[in-house]
Every structure is written in structure tokens, then in C-alpha cells.
């Protein structure tokens, strides 16, 4: 058997490779530079930051900006609450959305069309902030940790995305399982969910990012309950205090002045950005494989 001939790259192929490498390198630089610049400023001495001109390498390296942030006691409590609401909110939201999506994907569900239409309407029509606040008050959710979990436990968008994925699964799988004596719960947990890993990972990432970044609900419903504060809310107060304090001068906001020295608002903003971004960057690589598959669902029709 003759050995395959070696591929001889033509001049056009070499030019294409060079152009492709240059373009990809530019894309990489444009993508990484903002994050590296934020990291460099957060690790730069605050008094030196006001001079500007920092690129991707700190001019006066220091961890003082992060130390000043974490000296504030509310941050540790807020970090714990944010972790808890992210984990619990993601699990509850994923289970409820997938169960509802499974019900709507069943052809034998009589109210399928009405329920789907009702869900879509909720994406465009809202009661407004004041009625929602009154409703939460009457339900006893104000001053409660569950105000972070229960109101968003079912998302119409998440249900529609998961249902669209389930609609692409062969219904014969469910019929054959029923012939073997499996009930609906067995079919859902042992057949449907394992096949839905890509879309579930995608929705889980959406839910986790939404819960982790949320702070306005803390401001509205639990602003008077320090034990229920969240990391984003505390960092927002720290950032607000630096902006009110002018160029480098902190103001007394919730006893933060006694715990934090004079720092540059630019440095503290960048340090806060890194603090809230790193957890998501740590989680994303584990979900990337499923996330890419989930985002492309429905792109190809057989």
C-alpha cells in the first residue's frame, strides 16, 4: 500500500494561515485586554492609580485594595448569603423549570397550548414594582431569605428553552418506557433529564449568574435586615461610598470609614469587579462543554 503523499502548502495557503493567525491574535488581545487592565488597576497602589496610564501590568503592585474591601464585616456575611441564594436558587429554578417544561412537552397534556401562551404573556406583561412589593409583603416574604428564591423559581424563558430541547427528543422513548411499566416520574428523572444535560447546564449557568449578580431585590425587600444582605449589595454600598467621597476620600457609610482607609475610587471599582467576576469564571469552564451545546439547540434541523 502506497504511503499518502505529503501535503504541500501553496503560497495562498501560507498567506491564509498568516492572515488567520494575525486576525485571531487581534481578537484574543481585544478580548483579554479589558480584563487584564481591570486586574492590573485592582492590584495597583491606590495613590498611584490616579495618575492613570496603567495597561496590563500594575505599576506599584499591592493587595491593599482587596484587603480594604474585605476588612468590612458585612462582606463576609453577604458572601455567604450570595453563595446560599445562588446554590438554592439555581437548584430550585432548574427543577421547577424542567418539570414544567416536561409537562408542556407532552402531546397528551390537554392545556398545553393555553399554558404555553400564558407563560409567554408573563414575559411581556408585569404588575409593576409597587403591586409586586405589596404582594410580597402580604405573603410574608419581606425580611425573609425566601424572597430571593420563590419569586423567580419559575422563569418563562427558561421553561420555553428547556421545552424546545425536550420537543426534539423522540417521544418513542417515553412510550417504550411506559410499556415497561415506568411511571411519569421515572421517565422524567431516568430518561428525560439525562438526555437534557446540555440545556440544563445552560439554564443552570443563566440562573447562577442572575442570582450571583442580583442586588436590587436586597435593596427593596431586605435593606433593613443586615443578616440577609448579599455580596453584591454590600459591594454596591462600598462603591457608592467611594464615589461620594470624591477623589480618594471615603465617607462614613455604615461604619465603613472606620474600617477602610483612603483609597482611589478607580482602584476599588476594579477590585470589586474582580471579586464579583472570579466565581463565575471558576464555574464556567466546568459547564462550557454543555453550555455551547445548549446554546446551539435548534440551530440544525434534521
From TrEMBL:
Keyword DNA-binding: no
One Pfam family this sequence matches: BPD_transp_1
Cell compartments where the protein resides: Cell membrane
Keyword Transcription: no
Topology class, membrane: Multi-pass membrane protein
Primary localisation category: membrane
Domain ABC transmembrane type-1: 79-287
Annotated TM spans: 15-36, 83-104, 116-136, 148-166, 187-209, 268-287
Keywords (A to Z) from UniProt: Cell membrane, Membrane, Transmembrane, Transmembrane helix, Transport
Family the entry assigns: Belongs to the binding-protein-dependent transport system permease family.
Name listed for the protein in its UniProt record: Sugar ABC transporter permease
UniProt source species: Saccharibacillus endophyticus
Lineage: Bacteria, Bacillati, Bacillota, Bacilli, Bacillales
